[in-house]
Design goal:
single chain, 762 residues, alpha/beta, six-stranded parallel beta sheet, 27 helices, 18 strands, 48% helix
Length: 762
């Protein structure tokens, strides 16, 4: 094969992506001249790049399944570094080049950016702050500065991923911007001058820039010394410029190939050409094929030269044609009347047989219907089902409903660290120490299962109940966890001689229980004394974190003296890593001690715990990126409402559309186009359930634009049929499968009738 001619292929939505890729490579159809045959070592020469770690694991499993248990060395499968929320770095055994500074840790970056945000607030003119305080949250506390720093870090990643030039901000005409954006422009100039200096001083780089340099280094290595075996990039849309350059190099290797996901070869040329060119309308950024159109331009390949790999079943090919027609560019929808007959023929071929539409009345009914559908498939041997949604609230509802069936879903997004038991105890501890006066918070801390105080847990729990009766009930004022021992001691020694009756707690508690209550209160007092000594002053984050860790470990120490329970499992390990980073922080970020609970909450908020085991792999919950290359028996696309999937086209709080246009950044509609492509790929699943709720919270919701287009194109009668199937599922979930009370054989009312000789005589 000539190294100058690119080799680009596509797998259509109706064909399972990873199995099709594995079969093509094993059969020798993918790379000319490469036929592994029965050689167990031949596959070891191949290198395959996929977008995510999840796709890499799934592809390894697919190869093992296709080999049927035969001994073989699998290909090298690496994450490509596409837009992965986990920042999937190259899994290379070679060290990075010496010129590349390691990426800065996300926690350290927040602690460095937050003081810059606060400095901006201090230099913000008072009249500007008062004029625009309702339009954007102006940071007035350290916690708000951290929240804003997180948004700023996301903006830095976006700009460096797109390889835009920060200095071009100076060329933006200020008169074209509103007053608030002019102020923001000044702030961004401060960041562009100070932030690079801070990174250079620490010999660190931004994660997005570091990733792009790694991808470029890999492209340079492949171009300089092409491997002898196949090099394949599969499943990427080339949304990152560095990734597009790597794909261009791979497509031109002697044994290279780029496999695109779901390139629409049936879209007419007129509509396809609308997606490219300098005069393209802004709406085309939201088209599912816009990214692939741009990528083909970067690769220098015409759409007609892309070969299709794998075959679709006739009904799935007909469904793909309907979806392509429904999502065509808005400027080309005048072709819909001419396509009515073709759409009707496609429906006659069974294109919509596996499609069900659930339009539930509220979010709870939607979650119930999804849970029941997932459970039905999971109950079948060897079958798998998955929910794909951008609505995390819906994902949590479905997870909770599945637990009623004993199913723990494999949720790719995990659980927020703040909701895990160790993090909850840590936040309660800091809240009680730094903000005394709330008896509910104090009691919640005392009854935390992880609170041991060096004693047996049952003993601590009984002591907590005694402390509640003695010191927290009856209007005792503002309880202070640091003075709890004094409060308990004072109440125990109170003089009751003049009272006619003893206090109720003295009648309910025994002497041993009172002694335990006093002992636990004193232990907790000693545990939090160091952290409590910082109240009322200012301290840097590292000092506060160090005192917090000491108090946390002293309060959670078991009767054997260990703290293993605090850091057990994925949640404990995640919390331990966060605390280590805070203790080792060198940012010198000083705050008022009273702000520490809010600051700690803001720092924990960005962390999630992803379980490594213990979930049911027959049922999964994915984001759109994780689902891109996966194949399941039932796929549920949930939360299909505007604002959820797709999300809102929000340019962000730091840059307006004019400012982003000045940096040649894509408009926010580009993210809608990526979501539309994921929806188009999902529609290739044979059994697919589309769900939405008529109300979101307390307000009516608007159906996703893709649902509106699809139902408008197929016509009233076919749309009614797919809705009827959804209505049956909703009714079954709500009234029969879940909410109906199970039959209960109630016990008879007691009617004791002992024999006469056993009855008392007086």
């Amino acid at each position: 094969m000539n190294a100058s001619s690119p080799r680009v292929l596509s797998i259509p939505p109706g064909a399972p992506f990873l199995p099709t890729l594995a079969d093509a490579l094993l059969s020798g159809r993918l790379i000319p001249g490469f036929r592994p045959g029965g050689d167990p070592l031949a596959l070891a020469d191949a290198t395959i790049f996929v977008p995510t770690r999840r796709a890499a694991r799934a592809l390894r499993a697919t190869f093992a399944e296709r080999l049927g248990g035969k001994a073989a060395i699998l290909p090298v499968i690496r994450p490509l570094g596409d837009v992965d929320e986990d920042l999937a770095w190259f899994d290379t055994t070679l060290p990075p080049p010496p010129a590349l500074d390691p990426p800065i840790d996300s926690l350290e970056r927040l602690l460095l950016l937050a003081p810059l945000v606060q400095a901006w607030k201090k230099r913000l003119p008072a009249h500007v702050a008062s004029l625009f305080e309702e339009e954007i949250v102006v940071p007035t506390s350290s916690a708000e500065a951290i929240w804003l720093a997180r948004d700023l870090a996301a903006l830095i990643d976006e700009i460096e991923t797109a390889e835009a030039d920060w200095t071009r901000l100076s060329g933006i005409v200020r008169d074209e911007l509103a007053t608030w954006w002019q102020v923001t422009l000044d702030f961004l100039r401060i960041v562009t001058s100070l932030w690079p200096e801070a990174l250079a001083e620490r010999r660190r780089s931004n994660p997005a820039a570091h990733r792009s340099r790694l991808i470029d280094a890999e492209a340079e290595r492949l171009g300089r010394d092409p491997p002898r075996g196949p090099v394949i990039a599969a499943g990427s849309t080339g949304s990152i410029p560095a990734t597009a350059r790597l794909l261009r190099v791979i497509s031109r290797l002697p044994h290279g190939a780029v496999i695109l996901p779901g390139l629409d070869l049936a879209l007419d040329d007129a509509a396809w050409n609308m997606l490219s060119g300098a005069d393209a309308a802004p709406s085309v950024f939201g088209h599912p094929q816009f990214g692939l159109n741009r990528l083909l331009g970067e690769l220098g390949v015409a759409r007609a030269d892309v070969a299709e790999l794998g075959a679709q079943a006739p009904d799935l090919a007909a469904r793909a044609a309907i979806v392509s027609e429904a999502l065509r560019p808005a400027e080309a929808t005048e072709a819909w009347p001419e396509s009515r007959r073709a759409v009707a023929d496609a429906i006659g071929q069974g294109a919509l047989d596996g499609v069900t539409l659930v339009e539930a009345g509220n979010e709870r009914d939607e979650a119930l219907a999804i849970a029941l559908a997932l459970r039905k498939v999971a109950a079948l041997p060897g079958k798998r089902a998955a929910l794909v949604t951008a609505d995390r609230a819906l994902a949590r509802r479905v997870s909770a409903e599945l637990l009623r069936f004993g199913i723990t879903a494999d949720d790719s997004a995990g659980t927020p660290l703040a909701d895990t038991p160790p993090a909850a105890m840590l936040r309660l501890l800091v809240e009680c120490v730094m903000r005394p006066g709330d008896p509910v918070a104090v009691l919640s801390l005392l009854k935390q299962p992880l609170l041991r105080a060096g004693l047996e847990r049952g003993r601590v729990r009984r002591a907590a109940e005694a402390i509640e009766l003695v010191a927290l009930r009856g209007g005792v004022g503002r309880p202070d966890i640091c003075a709890l021992a004094d409060d308990v001691d004072a109440r125990l020694l109170a003089d009751d001689e003049e009272k006619r009756h003893k206090p109720f707690w003295k009648r309910r508690l025994r002497a041993g229980e009172l002694d335990d209550a006093l002992q636990v209160a004193r232990i907790i007092h000693d545990a939090v004394a160091g952290l409590g000594s910082l109240r009322g002053g200012r301290a840097d984050i590292a000092t506060l974190a160090r005192a917090t860790v000491v108090a946390f470990e002293n309060a959670g120490r078991s009767e054997t003296g260990g703290v293993e329970e605090l850091y057990r499992g994925e949640a404990g390990e995640k919390l331990a890593g966060l605390l280590r980073g805070l203790v080792a922080a060198e940012a010198g970020f000083e705050i008022d001690a009273s702000e520490w609970p809010d600051v700690l909450t803001a720092l924990i908020a960005g962390e999630a715990v992803k379980p490594r085991h213990g979930s049911d792999h027959a049922v999964s919950i994915w984001g759109a990126l994780e689902a891109r290359l996966q194949d399941v028996d039932l796929l549920v696309c949930g939360g299909l409402n505007e604002g959820s999937w797709p999300g809102r086209a929000d340019p962000g709080g730091f840059m307006s559309r004019v400012m982003k246009g000045g940096l040649d950044l894509d408009p926010p509609e580009r993210r809608i186009g990526q979501a539309a492509h994921d929806f188009q790929m999902a529609m290739g699943t044979r059994q697919i359930l589309l769900t939405r709720s008529a109300r979101a919270g307390d307000a009516p919701s608007v159906p996703s634009r893709w649902l509106q287009r699809l139902t408008a194109l197929i016509g009233e009668e076919p749309a009614k049929k797919i809705r009827e199937k959804g209505s049956l599922l909703t009714a079954e979930a709500r009234f029969h499968a879940l909410d109906a009370p199970p039959p209960v054989d109630f016990a008879r009312r007691p009617n004791p009738a002992p024999p006469l000789e056993a009855r008392p005589r007086h």
